[in-house]
Amino acid sequence: MARLTLRETVGGTKGHLEGLNQLSGVGVVYVEEDTGSIKVGDGYNRYLDLVNSTNSNNLFFVDYNDTATAATPITLLQDTWTTLTNDGLGTSTNTSQLPSDLTSMLAPSGGIDISMLKVGSDIMIRPDFTVTPTSNNSALYIRLSLGAGANAYTLESSLGRLDLGAGIPYREALHAIYAYAGDDNTTNNPIDIQIKLSGGGIVVNSGMAIKVYSK
Known about the structure:
With about 220 residues, the chain is mainly beta. The protein has 2 domains: about 5-45, no CATH class; about 60-215, Jelly Rolls, CATH 2.60.120. It has helices spanning about 15-20, 50-60, 70, 185; strands at about 5, 30, 40, 50, 60-65, 75, 80-85, 120-135, 140-145, 155-160, 170, 175-180, 190-195, 200-215. The strands form 3 sheets. Strands 5, 6, 8, 11, 12 and 14 form a 6-stranded antiparallel sheet that branches.
């Protein structure tokens, strides 16, 4: 993003803004003479409120809704980590809040592509899936698979036991997971959501919502 330049200022505002050293992808900052409001634009028109413009670039969400697993659930083998696939073709998919310079966050594996984010960016992931176990009291685990090769690593959590009976669908839709782009190994490789069940079963993946705090 280009450094802001000053077009119009009031009083000592010019020096203050230069001290802030703010960045924006919109272009030029100026102070509206009648109100004193800080605006950004291209230097001639299309001026927007500075806070809104910054939020639209640095804070956003995306939601990818899967269709394939509803028709063909994923089989869960006992004590085996399994990737939740996501085709992003569901009617609830929402990419309207993506910044103009970020085309997609859906990896070919159905995971999360953060290759367009800078190191230091943060994400909150809310998976939404339904597990049907073949045996009662099965333990369910979830993890993120990150990085690649010798630098691959995981972040794991337990979701407890499914103890209401076998053959019953158990939905997980409010378990938010935090991750951040700490280095190029994390940023340049997809982040896959994986689950493991202590007994066999099937899973239908509804999708995932992602909140992004971009540097």
